[in-house]
Design a protein that fits this description.
With 416 residues, the protein is of the alpha+beta class. It contains 11 helices and 12 strands. The chain has a domain at 20-53 and 74-169 and 179-236: Alpha-Beta Plaits. Strands 1, 2, 3, 4, 8, 9, 10, 11 and 12 form a 9-stranded antiparallel sheet that branches. It has a 3-stranded antiparallel sheet with strand order 5-6-7, with no helix packed on it. The model is unreliable at 1-21 and 23-61 (pLDDT under 50).
């Protein structure tokens, strides 16, 4: 695990690190580009109707009415037993940004370090409530927060300073195909994940949070993502297939598989982030039958090759008349199936990314109550998954997503 970066001068910076100002400037440019790209196809059709709605608004209209007139989605409450941005909203927002930072002070089991982390978390929680409440305009969200959510996690080195046996204190192991993951995209001390329907809101919120609540943290890496239309967790991934099918479907299953059940971090979750560069051209050049055999699902609607609808269970025992598995032995669906990996379910919140120059793919983000859920699954994929031929990991990290909070119960208050 790399040591955290130290502050650099305006002309010098450690290799593999990005100055905060340069990072936020890059995020601003990316946000503007994403906003223009996402809005271009809709602008002409919406301009007249939006202008008419805005013209009809009177000075007495409150912020909510103005936001509705501007087509803003409903707000997502930041408060609760669990942080927003995991299971809320049910269908993830189309734009996201993962901002990974290192703490300026090296993690240590001393009381001053632990107190500093608690204070950092409390500041972040307060800033999130401001962003999603009455102070949204101060951060540039002039029409209100919309469906903005912010999710905060702490890396293994930080959690280990509070107790080596705590959930989230264990780092990810190196997997078989991780040789292409650069050190600067491995691990990190602090995760700030921002999601919204408006890509500009994503950038503004991330910049405001970073500067206001974590000014001393050093940017390590970041990644913007976008998501295809879909319902619930199900959406087409960059390879053109439906993803996010086998996940905890309701609150009871989330309690069983996603949320830490007891102890001081109950209500939190273990997040794994994998930045996966995909060989989309190579995969889509394959015949459709080969693509479906690699995935284990029909390309047109996501149905299992063994039959049933798009959300139907895969029948791993089904065979052809000549005795071959209908779902191929090295298909992704079979390799990742919980009955094969011996693991629990994970809740996925995947986003595509496209940084140009053949650097595009999937930002795989999953949540589980135990890190072993992901680790067992990935070890199995390394062994028998034909999809791995088209996947190159270029980022890898895990974080303890803190339990939920509210105005009277600060974020991170339960850290022991």
């Amino acid at each position: 695990m790399s040591e955290p970066a130290t502050e650099s001068t305006a002309d010098e910076q450690p290799p593999g690190r990005t100055r905060r100002r340069d990072l936020l400037r890059g995020l601003a440019a990316a946000g503007a580009a994403a906003g223009f790209a996402g809005a271009a196809g809709l602008a002409a059709g919406r301009a007249t109707a939006d202008d008419e709605r805005r013209a009809a608004a009177t000075p007495e209209d409150d912020a909510d009415t103005v936001a509705q007139a501007a087509g803003r989605p409903d707000a997502v409450d930041a408060m609760g037993a669990h942080q927003a941005g995991i299971a809320r909203p049910d269908t993830p927002q189309p734009h996201g940004l993962l901002l990974v930072l290192d703490l300026a002070a090296a993690p240590s089991p001393t009381a001053p370090f632990r107190d500093a982390v608690r204070a950092l978390c409390a500041r972040l929680g307060t800033a999130i409530l401001d962003l999603t409440g009455e102070r949204a305009a101060e951060a540039g969200l002039l029409d209100g927060p919309g469906d903005l959510t912010v999710t905060v996690g702490l890396g293994p080195r930080v959690i280990a300073a509070f107790g080596a046996g705590l959930p989230g204190a264990e780092p990810l192991p190196a997997f078989a195909r991780d040789t292409a993951v650069p050190p600067e995209r491995t691990g990190g001390d602090l995760l700030i994940a921002v999601y919204a329907s408006d890509p500009n809101d994503v950038h503004r919120a991330a910049s405001w949070l970073s500067e206001r609540a974590a000014p001393d943290a050093v940017p390590r890496w970041s990644q913007r993502g976008f998501r295809a239309p879909g319902t619930g967790t199900i959406a087409r991934n960059p390879l053109g297939f439906h993803d996010g099918v086998i996940v905890p479907q309701d609150a009871a299953e989330q309690d069983e598989h996603v949320w830490i059940a007891d102890g001081p971090l109950a209500g939190g979750s273990i997040c794994v982030v994998r930045r996966l560069r995909l060989d989309v051209a190579g995969f889509t050049a394959e015949p459709v039958e080969r693509q479906e055999a690699v995935i284990g699902r029909q390309r047109n609607d996501g149905s299992p090759l063994s039959g049933g609808g798009p959300t139907g269970e895969v029948d791993l025992l089904a065979k052809t008349p000549d005795g071959q598995y209908v779902t191929p032995a090295r298909s992704h669906v079979r390799a990742a199936h919980p009955s094969v990996t011996g693991s629990a379910l994970m809740l996925r919140r995947g986003y595509a990314f496209d940084d140009g120059a053949s650097d595009a793919g999937l930002l795989f983000v999953c949540f589980q109550r135990d890190l072993r859920t992901f680790v067992q699954t990935q070890f199995r994929l390394d062994e028998v998954d034909d999809l791995g031929e088209y996947v190159t990991p270029t980022g890898s990290a895990t974080f303890l997503v803190l339990p939920g909070f509210d105005a009277g119960r600060p974020l991170g208050v339960t850290l022991p």
